[in-house]
Amino acid sequence: MASHGSELEHQVRELVAQVLGGVLDGSAPAADARPGSTPDTSGDGAERIAIGSDHGGFELKRTLSAQLVDAGWAVEDCGTHSAEACDYPEFAHAVARRVGTGRCTSGIVIDGAGIGSAMVANKIPRVRAAACYDISTARNSREHNRANVLTLGAGLTGPALAWQIVQEWLKTPWGGDRHLRRVALIREIEDQYVRTDA
């Protein structure tokens, strides 16, 4: 009888881990890029990256977009399409909306500092945006926080470092395990404020 209880408890724990790791979090674990993985460019959205910027991040966006395409990723450019002055919230919203709805698995937004775009992106349900300035923050945001939108500051990060950050961010897998509960708590807090009548 005791062994049956242990087995049942083990099964329940496995089920909870799966729920916290996937369904409760709103995305399947398989959607995260893994080290050495080859991007799926079939066009079905499986490994599609949304990218956007304001005028301050326009040149860096063009550079990173070309590098991503060269690396085999399917890139959806959400604008802006010139260096003419514009408002970063529009483009951060466009990128985050594509990630939050599942149209794209990841997003990158670039403005002057990366902070404002992160604030906007994090307003969208199912988005976990992180402003990253180095390899360590990029790795941590994916492994610990399961970030699905990366924001960069073109005024603070040069193109060579930005590309290194993007590569590290995309190849770092979600850590799971001890981080499951904390990411699930982020989702629970989000759900308290999401309107269901909108």
| Spans where pLDDT lies below 50 across 5 or more residues | 15-46
Tell me what portion of residues adopts beta-strand conformation: 5-15%
The end-to-end distance, rounded to whole angstroms, is 50 Å
Question: Taking strands numbered 1, 2, ... along the chain, how are they ordered across the largest sheet?
Answer: 2-1-3-5-4
CATH topology of the domain at 48-179: Ribose 5-phosphate Isomerase B, Chain: A
Mean pLDDT: 83
CATH architecture of the domain at 48-179: 3-Layer(aba) Sandwich
| Total count of helical runs of at least 4 residues | 7
Number of strands: 5
Instruction: Classify the helix fraction into a percent range.
Output: 40-55%
> What would you call the shape?
globular
Helix-and-strand structural type: alpha/beta
Largest beta-sheet characterization: 5 strands, parallel
The CATH superfamily title of the domain at 48-179: Sugar-phosphate isomerase, RpiB/LacA/LacB
Rg (C-alpha, Å)? 18 Å
Could you spell the SSE succession in H and E letters?
HEHEHEHEHEHH
Q: Can you identify the CATH class of the domain at 48-179?
A: Alpha Beta
